[in-house]
DNA sequence: TTGTATGCGTTATCAT
DNA sequence: ATGATAACGCATACAA
């Protein structure tokens, strides 16, 4: 039953067609130096015999494997799905195979990627998300082109060591918080980057601090909420829920929340409702990402929208120009937009809070 | 720059170590017939030289590729993510590589799968979701074990042609609709399986009809809503929203909705709110799947919960017992449970609707 | 315990 | 235009 032994090889086809293997190879790969008549004959025969090329054999010889590894960490965030989808389409369109490797959020994504890429002799890699705690050295091991998607600056690593396509997380976060400040809020909490995350989470928090600082609002670290439970994905509705639950208990003076991800915001919204507060009248909240579900919760989520299609397209552009043309590393920033939903409102100046 | 030419092979290691290639091969694969001292020496050397086995070479020889293809159609449904995640973990734990192939919902998933599996000489395949319009014949082409996950009965195909792990979609749908009937509803609409879908969608609609029939409620096909726009994924919030929007305009007599997927239900909830109706007082709605976000919308979604972990585990069980022990095909049904949220309520007997 | 020779399916080189 | 042969990296049967 465990067939596959029955699969015809070019040798079999050659035998049946009464030609040499190399002729078959040429016919199947649209190479020159072969008469149209024999080509057609062979192609038809191969099709009829149910021939499939053996990638292992082919790429053992060619040592060029048209495959891209897509390393994705923290898949739970639906936003990644929204960029993964077009990414996959584009890669396939270029006749490359995309191998998606999900790594648990506590694992070392670069380590995993190196292994896969090396063993499979892949042509390149894309890191979607991820929290890079790495030193520059780990990227040295990487001997194929790679791009960081939705991740921009890496604090410990020199720009020249990698490429990236992302929104300016810090800048956009500042704008988001500025939006809350413009509405009159001054006691603004932030949810929640775990310590040690050296990536988008940290940058968005930096943006938060920046906005407060710009506005002359004193920083209060107690308002920056996160949790560091091991083996727990920080980008989940649950996490946002728990963070907000505690926040509301401990800090009834808060009137607005900046969540570094929509999933956290949506989880927080439930906690806010459970606390008997109304959104946005008693509590404003703004998210980050622009995931689809944000438009279907009540009220519709106000958030910083990252353009998934554009990110996907640019990621592929940068990657393939490195693969095909040996182009140098590049850092692309794409603009985000604030989508005004119904979760933010001007601060009501009165003492009736709580 | 495009290195990978620099990767050491066992030949290089053998040269440096002053031994034969076969000794290296044995050392690296923990084979017997090799002294511990040389093994350790070689392993250390390989590590130091940054050796990585070349899968192409290895599996060209072995013609057994420890890789599983995961074909997933209609990825937009978040429920698939919830089973994909543990699935991936289990497969990796068994030291198999999982290649996820997403196919657009209008493509032929079996065709795609056959190609990949053949070319990569994969050991097996898992179909996650999908709408199988196929005749039995297409499965004959498949010469490796495969399992349909979250899909049970295929109308046109004999049971002996495939394995499956899923809830009993028809039965559970009947229970869901029965739940609405028990609350006193009689004018119950259903959202939305496109015509031609021969899979879970159709079965859940069949379950809906069954429930009405059991209760002696006359069937009204106008209450079964779906759309057949080409190239449009039916399992989205948007789709549910549009279906409900029209339904509410055309049929103000409806008091309850059965959605064949949670995404549709959640999309519909927005349409219901926009129509000025309250959930569940003016309109009850029940979903199917048990996606996480259902617990974070307001009110919390009442739904039929499929157990993703159990489905993932059983899918792997069935697949690997076929791969390793040549076990026969098997059909596993897992029980679902109705999660009582806040979107269903007893019918209020009065004329104030609308 | 270790090494030599062979072949997996394919493509490139060099012939004819 | 076509074919014989070598080579890709690895693992196995067999010999030493």
Automatic annotation (TrEMBL), chains A, B:
Residues 8-62 form the HTH lacI-type domain. PROSITE patterns: HTH_LACI_1, HTH_LACI_2. One of its GO terms (molecular function) is DNA-binding transcription factor activity. Pfam families: LacI, Peripla_BP_3. It comes from the Bacteria. Keywords: DNA-binding, Transcription, Transcription regulation. The keyword DNA-binding applies. Coiled coil: none annotated. InterPro entries: HTH_LacI, LacI/GalR-like_sensor, Lambda_DNA-bd_dom_sf, Peripla_BP_I. The keyword Translocase does not apply. This is HTH lacI-type domain-containing protein. It comes from Schaalia turicensis ACS-279-V-Col4.
